[in-house]
Amino acid sequence: MNEVILDVRERDEYEAEHVEHSINVPLSHFATIAPGVLNQLGQANVVILCRSGNRAKLAFEQVKQLGYADKIAVRVYEGGIMEWKRAGNPTLLKHRSGLPIMRQVQLAAGLMILASTILGAFVNPAFLGVTAFVGAGLTVAGSTGFCGMAILLSKMPWNKLTANRCEK
Q: Which residues does 2 contact at the CB level (< 8 Å), separation at least 6?
């Protein structure tokens, strides 16, 4: 029988480094995504993996609650991807130059607010509209999870990913 690894770390963690051919099913969306994925796996042995093993255990509990523990063979990879690498198993590692996207968003938003506030106070009050626009964007990002600035910044040339196979 074949073995399928479900990586329950969040998308950004998975994109930074993961086991080749693993399937990302973030724990934060596990209950909604997992049934569709598990139904597609058929008779595969499922191994649940996270960073250290804690989230994988929580996902395993959800597998049981969803009623799949009796239908498919599921186990937790103890120690997570940290143990996977310690054991000498390969991962795909994606290098991104510079700062993580969310730090770039924080830096850009902060600079835009600071600059527009200073310009609004000393040059023209119309610059305060930029402050309101950035504040509204941050409010939308915080309430919906959609961050237009993060999407825009991720397309910048300095944020292009390069994939490397990392073997220990």
A: 44, 45
Q: How far apart are CA 30 and CA 8, in angstroms?
A: 8
pTM value is: 0.62
Which structural domain range is residue 121 located in?
101-160
Catalytic residue of the set 50, 59, 105, 147 = 50
- Tally of domains in the chain: 2
CATH number at residue 43: 3.40.250.10
Q: Name the token pair of 131.
A: 């402050």
Distance in angstroms between the alpha carbons of the first and the last residue of the chain: 27
Would residue 147 show up in a list of annotated catalytic residues for this protein?
no
Same-domain status, 33 and 87: yes
CA Rg, the chain, in Å?
21
- Say how far apart CA 49 and CA 82 lie, in whole Å: 10
pLDDT per position as a tens digit, 110-121: 999 999 999 999
